[in-house]
Every structure is written in C-alpha cells, then in structure tokens.
C-alpha cells in the first residue's frame, strides 16, 4: 500500500531537503489546551487574497493528481447529468451543483416507475480543494453493488466560502433530494450520505445541520429516511490542535504537512470568533441527545492507521455505538496507510485495498437499503 500521504491525488511527501523524514515537533502545554475559537487554531487571520491564490495553486496540482488517478483501469464512471440548485439554508446565497451518476436500468425508469436508493457524496480536500468527480471510483461500486443513484455534491469551497457554507450546502442537497427525489426517480426513504476526509465530516454534519434546520421550517417536508452515513477518514474535532494530533499519530512523518493543514484551517475557520465546538464543525462535541436524534441508524466508519485523524474518528465511532446513542456502527481501522491513501495518483492501478473496501462498504449500504 502507498506509504506517501496524498490529498485527493496530490502526493505530499513529508521530507526535508536532505531527503530524510522531518521530525515532528512535540506539542507544548499551550498546544494541549482545548481550542475554543478559530483564532486559537489559526492565530491572526492571513490575508484572504493570499489564501485564495494559494488555494488555486493547490487546486491546479490536485487536478493533475486526480487526472493520473483516473487513468488506472478499470476507468471510473462519469456523471449522467447535473442539476444546479439555489442555496436556501446558508446566509451566503448562491448555487450548488449536484452531479448524478446513474445505475443500470435508470434509463428505463419511466416505463417501470422504479424509484432508486441514493448515496449523496461529499468530496475531500480540506473544504478548500477538490472536485465532485474525485470519488468516482467509489461511485462505480455504489452503482453496481447498491443499484443506487450516486449524487456527488459540488459544495462551495473556502476561502471564498468559509464555515459553515459547505455544511449548509450539504444539508441543502439532502433537502432538495427529499423534496424532489421522486421527480428524479430517487426514493426519499432510501437515502445515505457518504464522504471522504473533509467530505467525511460533511457526511456527518450535514445530517445534524438538516435536523436542526427542519425544526425551523413552517411548511411540511415530505416523509423521508436517511438510513446511513458512510464516512471515510473524517475530521471530527477542531477543538484539538493539529500539533497534538500529529504527535499522537503512530507515524507522524506520514501525516499531512503543517503548511497544507494551516491553509485548510485558515481558509475554512473564519472569522476569528467561530466556535470550534459547534456540532456542525466538530461532531465530537455534539450532545448525546443531538447525535441520537440527528445521526442515521447505521454509521459505516473507516479510519487510517497513519492518519492524524485516526484517533478522533475511532473515538466518535465508539461513542455513536454505545449507550445512550446506540447506533449500528461498523468501524474499520485500515492498517499501514496514511490519510487519503485511496486517492493515490498511480496511473497503472487503483490504490491497494481500496476497491475491496469500497465493495465492503457498498455491501453494508445495500443491506441498509433493503431493510424496512
């Protein structure tokens, strides 16, 4: 398996100019204190113009990396169609685009009037880079194994649109499919979220955001059932410093470098007063009552052994599975791989083990969709 961490297809070797692994600084006592606001995590906010320039540079690298990732056989599918919808939840008005991948038989839906399950996916990239096509290799298994429509959400990115826009766009995508699913031959009673890295966070927090938003609506919302979350190496707790997370990791040299995570955090965590304990930012900090109410019955959780996010993901998975929350949790820690290992930019073959795990995840989702 790949031993170089990647960010959605970009190889990020954590080495210095001598070619040896960099030493990970030990966290200070100040680093170990819980972070309360964005300023605690970022310090003095960098120039938003500089952040945009830096983000665009990384986006161009990511495009190259993912182009190589998609060259490996079998080739991933492409979206069948897209829908651009207006945001309704965020104060930052605008549009988001839904990319629809359709399973075999979808083209005959008008004759059969069949409704399909749907997996609503959120790509990774630190809420700053990435594209809705990034997880197309996972989409192939959703189409073939689950016989479900795969909807990839092109949520708005930071620094142009900092927290909480991405999460609110995620909740908006869910709300749109609940309201318009039957028009798209999607069964609103058979929905699941999925996501990778930052998208793994949105897969969780969008259900919380939607649950809270529905309480404010006066007009009724059609009956629906979000049955599952499938989250891959998500960030779950922003109240703990990156320094602490790196130092705790079993392979600190394989974690994402500070210059990149600093860009992500400064771009997304803005303005300075944003509370890092918000449940739609750090689901670890949500109350038991809120998690029990808002999180779907089944949670499929994958974490990576060499990832700085491994510990917080595992802890949240355990918490969701025990009393008083008592969700059905399927958690697997993938040994010997770094964050986003499955997006390796190798044009010769998919990342080792990735297709087997995609298959496993979709077998779980298929069973969830079959249930009453």
UniProtKB/TrEMBL annotation:
Region (Disordered): 1-44
Keyword Hydrolase: yes
Residues passing through the membrane, by range: none
InterPro entries attached to this UniProt entry: AB_hydrolase_3, AB_hydrolase_fold, GDXG_lipolytic_enzyme
Regions of compositional bias (Low complexity) in chain numbering: 18-27
Record keywords, A-Z: Hydrolase
Pfam family, one: Abhydrolase_3
Ranges annotated as biased composition (Basic and acidic residues): 29-39
Domain Alpha/beta hydrolase fold-3, residue spans: 119-341
UniProt cross-references to SUPFAM superfamilies, sorted A to Z: alpha/beta-Hydrolases
Tree of life domain: Eukaryota
PANTHER family xrefs: AB HYDROLASE SUPERFAMILY PROTEIN C4A8.06C (PTHR48081), ALPHA_BETA HYDROLASE FOLD-3 DOMAIN-CONTAINING PROTEIN-RELATED (PTHR48081:SF8)
Record-given protein name: Alpha/beta hydrolase fold-3 domain-containing protein
Organism: Podospora pseudocomata
